[in-house]
Amino acid sequence: MIKFTIITLFKEAVEPYLKSSMMEKAVQKGLAEFSFVNLRDFGLGPHKSVDDTPYGGGDGMVFRCEPVFAAVESIKAKDPDAKVILPTPVGEIWNQEMAREFTKNSHYIIICPHYEGYDERILQLVDYKVSLGKYVLTGGELPALIIVDSVVRLIPGVLGGETSAEIESFSEGDNLEYPQYTRPEDFRGMKVPEVLLSGNHGEIAKWREAHSKKVGTI
Ligand code: 6GU
């Protein structure tokens, strides 16, 4: 069982994906659990403020320390071993190896930053700074979903069946993907490679090996 607690102001942007398809199945099978903490609940003053203007000037608003520390501390009070992930464009670029490594711990807290950024002092709370690539998004919600999805699908039993991540080369660390086809054999003149129709499992395995690409080089 792996658990993700997502600290966000925009639960409505995140929750539907986690209630769909394989993520929902993982929850139903008791292999994953997702929960949300509304940063606003830890906001300051009558307006439950979570952000403020940056010292030194500049555009936009910055996440304040107090609400973020209070939110993380409220979760850690119940589970001191939970690890904290901060999606940020200046983090380490996420990859399959990291996703596999993350299956080893049982509880992650993901802080979804918004606005123009966060007070640098919140890094005190953070175990992993993760970036999804060399571009900038408006917030941490999409990165949080990508991190969760890529970790949860690697948990044994989530994909299930003979074609699961466990059986495919995904799980062996070499992360191979080969082209796949299903019916019809001929679609508008585009034909399925003959070897895949041959029933010759040795030849099929050879063809797949020859046409495999490593994840990350596709
Ligand atoms: Cl993790 N956050 C934001 N805001 N932008 C990104 C990113 C993360 N990764 C790539 N771009």
What's the SSE blueprint?
Blueprint: E1 2-8, H1 11-18, H2 21-28, E2 32-38, E3 51-52, E4 62-63, H3 65-78, E5 83-93, H4 96-102, E6 107-111, E7 117-118, E8 128-131, H5 141-152, E9 176-177, E10 186-187, E11 190-191, H6 194-197, H7 201-210, E12 213-214
Parallel strand pairs: 1-2, 1-6, 4-7, 5-6, 5-8
Antiparallel strand pairs: 3-4, 9-12, 10-11
Helix pairs in contact: 1-5
The protein binds 6-chloroguanine.
List keywords for this structure.
single chain; 218 residues; alpha/beta; Alpha/beta knot; Trp Operon Repressor, Chain A; 2 domains; five-stranded parallel beta sheet; three-stranded mixed beta sheet; 12 strands; 22% strand; elongated; binds 6-chloroguanine
> What does the radius of gyration come to?
21 Å
Structural class of the helix and strand makeup? alpha/beta
Question: Helix coverage percent of residues?
Answer: 25-40%
Ligand inventory reads:
6-chloroguanine
Q: What form results from the Cα inertia axes?
A: elongated
Query: Which stretches are low in confidence, meaning pLDDT under 50 for 5 or more residues running?
Result: 169-174
Q: How many E strands?
A: 12
Distance between the termini: 31 Å
What percentage of the residues does DSSP assign to strands (E)? Answer: 15-25%
Averaging pLDDT over every residue, what do you get? 93
CATH class of the largest domain: Alpha Beta
CATH architecture of the largest domain: 3-Layer(aba) Sandwich
Q: Under CATH, the topology of the largest domain is which?
A: Alpha/beta knot
